[in-house]
Design a protein that fits this description.
Structural class of chain A: little secondary structure
Shape of chain A: globular
Oligomer: heterotrimer
Strand order of the largest sheet of chain A: 1-2
CATH architecture of chain C: Roll
Order of helices and strands of chain A: EEH
CATH class of chain C: Alpha Beta
Strand content of chain C: 15-25%
Chains: A little secondary structure, B alpha/beta, C alpha+beta
Helix content of chain C: 25-40%
Strand order of the largest sheet of chain C: 2-3-4-5
CATH topology of chain C: CBS-domain
Helix content of chain A: 10-25%
Largest sheet of chain A: 2 strands, antiparallel
Mean pLDDT of chain A: 80
Radius of gyration of chain A: 13 Å
Low-confidence stretches of chain A: none
Structural class of chain C: alpha+beta
Number of domains of chain C: 1
Strand content of chain A: 5-15%
Number of helices of chain C: 8
Distance between the termini of chain A: 43 Å
Chain lengths: ~50, ~70, ~160
Amino acid sequence: MIALEVKCEKCGKAIDVCDMCEDPACKHVVCHDCLSVALGERRPQPHEHGG
Amino acid sequence: MSSPIDRDQLQNLVAQGAQLLEVLPADEYREDHLPGARSIPLSQIDRESAAALDANRAVIVYCWDMA
Amino acid sequence: MAPRAAARLETLGFGQVHEYRGGKLDWMAAGLPTEGENSLHARAGDAARKDVPICSLTDRLGDVRDRVKAAGWDAALAVDGEGVVLGLLRSKELAKDPDLRIEQAMRPGPSTFRPYVSLHEMAHFMEEHDLESSPVTTSDGKLVGLLYRADAVRLGMPPK
């Protein structure tokens, strides 16, 4: 099986698979960092107040 | 010298009367803060603002994460 | 920033100062309650179904499937002895050879979401990615529940 590289729809970073659905055919690929920020799981970096 | 604590220690200290202080910007405090916490953003901590706290009781400061 | 705040308080005469290093993120990721404007909005942990069937890695798939169906579910989560999520079994995985062990049949290391995540955002992403369900766990991986898209949409999105 050939590993296909996909790109995050939001930041363009190349990743193995969509972090939300892990579907190789996902049409809205999102990377872990962008998904974490979108869901409020962490703050965008650099964070304005540094911690 | 202040001491680092974890979540369990925080809960024990609060049960014993410790005060919680969030030092993030006020808008982040408005969105979410630990139950009972007060807000004094880091840049505004001075003698006047700290007078809202009881210097004879333990104070636990926190921000968003460990950064 | 907490160490700097603690140091500043000490200069102001506070003798017992502690730093909660994990901060608000650690607190919320553990599913603990907060106060503030956001606490009025529904979160993933509120809507996640806490009674989702669980199983262990060495269980036989056929036995788990029978138990899951009898309880009226179409999914189960494989967890360790501490309740840490190791794998997910949706209908597709549950339909595999009944003699497989769970660890051979499950979807390992599924994406998980923290309990404080906005239900509105979760509903949006689950719809966009056509996900029927997603596990909700604490930051140390312990199961909170299984969030169904239908619940996320119903509770997290205002009616149009």
